[in-house]
Amino acid sequence: MEAGRSHTAMDAVMAGLEFAEYVKRCDALGAQPHLDRACLLVSAVFERNVDIGRSLKELDAFALDAEHAAASATDSYAMAGAVLDAVFDRAAFRGNSTRYHEPGNSLLSSVLERRTGIPITLSIVVIEVARRIGLRLEGVGLPGHFVVRFPDATSRLFIDAFDKGRIIDATQCVEIVDRHTGGRVTWSDRFLDPVAPRAIIKRVLSNLKNVLSHAKDYASALTAIELQLALDPGDSTELRDRGILFARLHRYDRAIADFEAYLERSPDASDVKQIRDMLPRLREERNL
């Protein structure tokens, strides 16, 4: 489902409102958001002069290249190969391993411009180029990594977009998870299940929130949380995280309100005692 109109550059407030409206339109139709438009709206919230229409046309051009390479092939593996050639061989997209934690790696407009990103945003490029030529590829959210599943639902082959579109199997997925988590995560075959576009967008925003928080850009991290809540208003963990950021910004009334709402919504959460213990201190700070 496409949003109702084309976009050129827009300001951050307008982009945030359009993101929320787009998500609501999708909900009303029982449809999943398109990854390209949703992620480009997110980009426009955090970057100036994002031209969404131009970025969409760039994805169209990659798809046209892939379509020409695939010629009249209808085999899904041949079509997937044409997409990978277009994205990684001719357009030269690469994983940004040297500056992995840059916020721009989570912003699709920046990824398209620089031809580099993190696993999830590079996977989005692959998925969206494939969608344009009629090939449905699905994302797989491994712990600590993100890959794309080949179109055959029975296939155990995956695309590692962070590694120049390398084809890997399930055993290599296990090795990747073990490497990225330091062996702290017990493998489950459920990790190989595809995730819906809404969950992919949510993970992009979560990555962005974490990177910005780590950089102490709390105001921007709050913006990422607001987008998360527009996408999933029922996620109480975002209320908790917003409360933490409000506390760091000394906005104690807002922090207290979010923590109280979190405790009401998630009374059995593992961190309930910790949050309850924080509230008296925050009330004291508020009254100073």
What strand line-up does the widest sheet have? 6-5-4-3-7
Given as residue ranges, the uncertain stretches (5+ residues, pLDDT < 50) are 1-7
Mean pLDDT: 93
Q: Give the tally of structural domains.
A: 2
* Rg: 20 Å
Q: Which structural class matches the secondary elements?
A: alpha+beta
SS field, number of helical segments: 12
Any idea what the shape is? Answer: globular
Range of helix content: 55-70%
Strand content: 5-15%
Structure description:
By secondary structure, the chain is of the alpha+beta class. The chain folds into 2 domains: 12-233; 234-288, no CATH class. The chain is 60% helix and 7% strand. It has 12 helices and 7 strands. It has helices at residues 12-29, 35-46, 52-70, 76-90, 108-114, 119-132, 170-181, 197-214, 218-231, 236-248, 252-265, 272-287; strands spanning 94-95, 116-117, 138-140, 147-149, 157-160, 166-169, 194-195. The protein has a 5-stranded antiparallel sheet. Strand 1 (94-95), helix 5 (108-114) and strand 2 form a beta-alpha-beta unit. Helix 1 (12-29) runs antiparallel to helix 2, helix 3 (52-70) packs across helix 6 (119-132) and helix 11 runs antiparallel to helix 12. The N and C termini lie far apart (51 Å).
